[in-house]
């Protein structure tokens, strides 16, 4: 080629199309990663589902999805009727719908973008989150390089990748229903996963809790974890020091791994935050003012993420447990936390609770969690152990009271409590005395506070120039740039 042509080609801006699974747990880290890549000169198209696009506009205003120079938004249908989104715990239905019905609209979108149809540079690569492997197939058909942002811990990925072996060794499917409740899950120890300490069957993804070999959740999660390896590279929101052994084992099998967590730390350092947040819920920022008025490290922060559902009894036990601590607390009671259409907030709290906690209670329906966790007033975090929440808690150096209920949350909880020493676990059956006791422990334990401070410092070091996550992001950007040169 004549030199001139080559240099023209080289000057084309690389363009990453980012396609998250349509839930907060994946949209948030995908947006953080997209902002970081944008800060490194990469043109971004961020693809939401139409349903979420409308929700974001309702919660944040149209500005949130209007885009910026070189950062644009697109939306594709998610294959579900709007009404079906309101039925509460719909995640598996959503997984089935996206994987069965989103391929065609995504293919069309990628082809249009690649043609320059949207005024964007040709597509350089497609970055999808976990649970979106249909998008990997689409990208492959179109000859586009891919990367997967795995939304959970490396430990969760490794255990989920081993589902096949769990089948072969006879652990799953469970032989009968009684094994779900008779202690079998806790006493069955798996000590043969490379890079992992012995772990009980109950500490790995809850999708193994089935007697049906073809259970959709089990199959889907098994396939999705293994399909990640189809991508050209795997991106993890964790840092090397946090999961050293399990990452070493993973890299031995699959070397193209970029650990770039905690993403929130990299963003803070990069100050690349000119693109708005994308919340599916209207955020309550008044709780930040409330926190400003509290003493340092005094507040118990309670939030169970975007999907967890509580029974009215569980909610009442948490409530009275918090009341018994006598401490100020910020509790995010999301709409649909108990039943579809419940509206969330104060209205769901038991009778007499408001009076019992007057003057030390702040209830919100959704908050800017990363900012809340980093607020100096927060002393501990009562969490469902979702990976983003766990990672944000580690990054903020906040001890955790863990109540895992679903999917990878058990694995994250085990690492938080045992490997990192920053958490204490509640029993599945919520009891107010234990809630109060564990909160006291997390607030008072010098050991947990010191461990949390150590991990916070390590997270900060990983995200600074020369740190593993900082350098991995640079390498990831170089790889994307190399696709377009
Ligand atoms: N989140 C938030 N405000 C809230 C609750 C959650 O910003 O009131 C964010 C939280 O910071 C995290 C994500 O939503 O980034 C939840 O992800 P996670 O993996 O913790 O749990 P999931 O919702 O997927 O169960």
From TrEMBL:
<keyword id="KW-0328">Glycosyltransferase</keyword>
<dbReference type="GO" id="GO:0080044">
    <property type="term" value="F:quercetin 7-O-glucosyltransferase activity"/>
</dbReference>
<comment type="similarity">
    <text>Belongs to the UDP-glycosyltransferase family.</text>
</comment>
<protein>
    <submittedName>
        <fullName>Uncharacterized protein</fullName>
    </submittedName>
</protein>
<dbReference type="GO" id="GO:0080043">
    <property type="term" value="F:quercetin 3-O-glucosyltransferase activity"/>
</dbReference>
<keyword id="KW-0808">Transferase</keyword>
């Amino acid at each position: 080629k004549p030199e001139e042509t080559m240099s023209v080609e080289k000057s084309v801006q690389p363009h990453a199309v980012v396609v998250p699974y349509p839930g907060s747990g994946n949209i948030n880290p995908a947006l953080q990663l997209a902002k970081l890549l944008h800060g490194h000169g990469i043109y971004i198209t961020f693809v939401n589902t139409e349903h979420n696009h409308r929700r974001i506009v309702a919660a944040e205003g149209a500005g949130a999805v209007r885009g910026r120079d070189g950062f644009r938004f697109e939306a594709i249908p998610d294959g579900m009727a709007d009404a079906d989104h309101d039925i509460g715990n719909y995640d598996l239905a959503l997984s089935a719908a996206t994987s069965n019905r989103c391929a065609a609209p995504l293919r069309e979108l990628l082809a249009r973008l690649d043609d320059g149809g949207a005024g964007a540079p040709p597509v350089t690569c497609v970055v999808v989150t976990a649970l979106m492997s249909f998008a990997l197939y689409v990208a492959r058909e179109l000859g586009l390089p891919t990367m997967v942002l795995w939304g959970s811990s490396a430990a969760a990925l490794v255990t989920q990748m081993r589902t096949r072996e769990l089948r072969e060794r006879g652990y799953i499917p469970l032989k009968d229903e009684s094994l779900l409740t008779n202690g079998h899950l806790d006493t069955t120890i798996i000590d043969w996963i490379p890079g992992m300490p012995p772990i009980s069957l109950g500490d790995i993804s809850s999708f193994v809790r089935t007697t049906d070999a073809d259970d959709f959740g089990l199959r889907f999660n098994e396939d999705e974890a293994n399909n990640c390896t189809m991508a050209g590279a795997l991106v993890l929101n964790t840092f090397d020091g946090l999961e050293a052994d399990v990452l070493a084992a993973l890299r031995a099998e699959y070397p193209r791994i970029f650990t770039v967590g905690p993403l929130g730390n990299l963003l803070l350092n990069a100050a690349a935050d000119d693109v708005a947040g994308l919340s599916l819920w209207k955020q309550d920022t008044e709780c930040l003012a409330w926190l400003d008025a509290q003493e340092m490290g005094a507040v118990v922060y309670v939030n169970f993420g975007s999907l967890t559902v509580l029974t009215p009894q569980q909610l009442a036990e948490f409530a009275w447990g918090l009341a018994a601590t006598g401490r100020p607390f910020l509790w995010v009671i999301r709409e649909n936390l108990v039943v579809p259409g419940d509206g969330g907030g104060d209205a769901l709290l038991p009778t007499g609770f408001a009076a019992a906690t007057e003057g030390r209670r702040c209830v919100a329906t959704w908050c800017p969690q990363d900012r809340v966790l980093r607020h100096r007033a927060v002393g501990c975090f009562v969490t469902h152990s979702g990976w983003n929440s766990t990672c944000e808690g580690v990054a903020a150096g906040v001890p955790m009271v863990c109540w895992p209920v679903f999917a990878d949350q058990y694995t994250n909880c085990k690492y938080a409590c045992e490997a990192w020493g920053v958490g204490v676990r509640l029993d599945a059956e919520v009891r107010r005395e234990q809630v109060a006791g564990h909160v006291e422990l997390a607030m008072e334990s010098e050991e947990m506070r010191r461990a949390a401070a150590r991990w916070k410092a390590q997270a900060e070091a990983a995200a600074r120039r020369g740190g593993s996550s900082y350098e991995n992001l640079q390498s990831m950007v170089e790889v994307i740039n190399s696709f377009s040169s």
